[in-house]
Amino acid sequence: MTNKHEFCKCLYYSANALARIVTKMAEEEFSAVNLAPSYAFVVMTVNKNPGILAGELAEIMMLTPSTVTRLIDKLESQQLVKKHCEGRSTLIYPTPKSVELNEAIKAAWYKLYVRYVEVLGQENALHLTGEIYQSALKLEAK
Fold first, then answer.
1. 76 within 8 A of 57, measured Cβ to Cβ
2. How far is residue 45's CA from residue 57's CA, in Å, rounded to a whole number?
3. Is this structure's pTM higher than 0.85?
4. Assuming Cys at both sites, which of 13, 82, 89, 107 could form a disulfide with 93, CB separation 3.0 to 4.6 Å?
5. Sign, Cα dihedral of 138, 44, 29, 117
6. Residues 6+ apart with CB under 8 A from 137
7. Whose CA is closest to 105, among 57, 48, 52?
8. Nearest to 102 by CA among 92, 114, 110, 112
9. φ, ψ for residue 121, nearest 5 deg
């Protein structure tokens, strides 16, 4: 491995560099469905879990409730989700438009996967993904 900079040994620096590269790739792939990657993942999650609680969606997405509220509001304005309030709970439902778009979103997600697997190799990509996710869970639980 060639060290481009002394910061490459810093988790913060390296994780952010990786995130920027993968985000650019994801934005390119999800542009086929006219959604930013985070919106696409919310739509897929809501499609798979109709009536999901906003708080549960925040947990799955590993985002703050306020961020999820902002994402949901934007998706609702695009008629991709519907909010339904029951007391203090907000349930999120897919719309016919989001259900119709679901396969195209999954196709974009798969194209992203293929892109990074072509570079990293399948075994390395799966291992790296698992390690990053497990590390995120450990650091989040701090």
1. no
2. 8
3. yes
4. 82
5. positive
6. none
7. 48
8. 110
9. 85, 145
φ/ψ region of 62 (left if φ > 0, alpha if ψ in -120 to 50, else beta) reads: left
Reference 58, options 75, 48, 70, 74; nearest CA is 70
Domain ranges of the chain: 35-141
| Two structure tokens written together for 102 | 């679901």
Sheet with 81-86, strands from edge to edge, namely 52-53, 89-94, 81-86
Residue 21 reports pLDDT greater than 90: yes
Yes or no: domain 35-141 corresponds to CATH 1.10.246.40? no
Per the structure block, which two tokens stand in for 124? 């390395």
